[in-house]
Amino acid sequence: MRPPSVARSAIARLASRRRVRRLLRSASDRVPYEAWTWLEAYARWRRLDTRVPDEVVARVKARKAAGAALRASYAHDPRLAVVVTSFNQVWNVHTLADRLLANPHVDEIVVCEDGSLDGSLEAWVSRLIVPNGFVIRSNDLHEIRSLDRAFRLSRAEVLCVIQDDDVVPEDPSWAAEALALFDAHPRLGVLGGFQARLEAPTAEEAGAAPGDPLPDSSTRAAGPFRFVPTVCIGPYYVRSRCYDECGGFDTAYSEPGQAGVGFDEEFALRAWLRGWQVGYLHQPFKTGVEGGYDLGAGGTFLYGEPTERTEHARANGRRVVQTYAPHHDAIMEAVRAGNARLAAESTITEA
Questions:
Q1: In Å, how far from its chain's centre is CA 162?
Q2: Angle (deg, nearest 10), helices 33-47 and 17-27
Q3: What are the residues facing 114 on neighbouring strands?
Q4: Rounded to whole angstroms, what are the CA distances from 25 to 21, 36, 44?
């Protein structure tokens, strides 16, 4: 598109930024709107060097060559996306990235980089040069909101949440194992690999005073796949359709910048009430050892106030109990029914 005649004659006479300003002031009542864009563009061109430095051109070409060497094509509809929560654990970035990139069952990697100051952002950007490698930069929002952004960005059928201090197994079979379970159980909405609770919240817990000792039904034991009331991150797999139908993670479990302790367990309990199933299969992502995990090494203890984090965890725990204790029987009945079918299928297979 050529500029209007008034603009063409004006541009031809322009020689300095001062003359542009003077022309704009004097011609405001007679220069058509389209001409203003041309005049503004010319003024910018006069005062800015728009050439791309040769050094940048060389770096871009090198980056493109490195990406092409991986022979990775863009997956429009990925099957499995791994979503990593990242916050100042740069020591583990390269190991995580290398093992995820080497896993043939991982179609997409989305990193929720939540404001690290230790070089984690730069490390992730330097490693994720594949077409389905994404880095979402946020500013200390914490996991509920950053994960929700990632889940809604990805088009994957199954999303797997891991944390930045997780030890991803070098053997890639963990991903295939999880996908096989989602294939075998069409209503499996959530699958946990770290910790499960074998009992839904009870009326006894709901009626207890704050600080009263309560039975702990949590387990980190290995064993065959089974259905359970709820599970914790991570790994923490979610079928994307389940996430959408259940309305996503509940942001009431934390303010922006505050740890969302218990939001993962709450979502799994909610999934049961929406007709989905929740399962557990131990996968040693925390220390590589069954049942082992140094909770004190987590980011919310390292960078926050431990007492505040503990009190917040208790408050959220009470919220979960108060919300789901009335549904204890319904959830446990669904869990038992699912496990009964598993047992029957196992018996048939063995026979």
A1: 8
A2: 170
A3: none
A4: 6, 11, 17
Q: Is the pLDDT of residue 13 over 90?
A: no
Band the pLDDT of 296: cuts 50, 70, 90: very low
- For the chain, give the mean pLDDT: 84
Residue type, 319: R
CB 113 within 8 A of CB 120: yes
Using a 10 angstrom Cβ sphere, with 0-12 exposed, 13-18 middle and 19 or more buried, the burial of residue 348 is exposed
Q: What is the pLDDT of residues 87-135, one digit of tens each?
A: 999 999 999 999 999 999 999 999 999 999 999 999 999 999 999 999 9
> What is the identity of the amino acid at 198?
L
Q: Name, in order, each residue with C-beta under 8 angstroms of 241's C-beta and a sequence gap of 6 or more.
A: 157, 189
- Ramachandran region, residue 214 (left: φ > 0; alpha: ψ -120 to 50; beta: rest): beta
How many C-beta atoms surround the C-beta of residue 137 within 10 A? 15
Cα 340 off chain centre by? 33
Per-residue model confidence as pLDDT tens digits over 80-100: 999 999 999 999 999 999 999
251 DSSP 8-state letter = G
- Tokens (6 digits) for 167: 């030890």
191-225 per-residue burial string, b: 16 or more CB within 10 A, e: under 16: bbbbbbbebbbbeebeeeeeeeeeeeeeebeeeeb
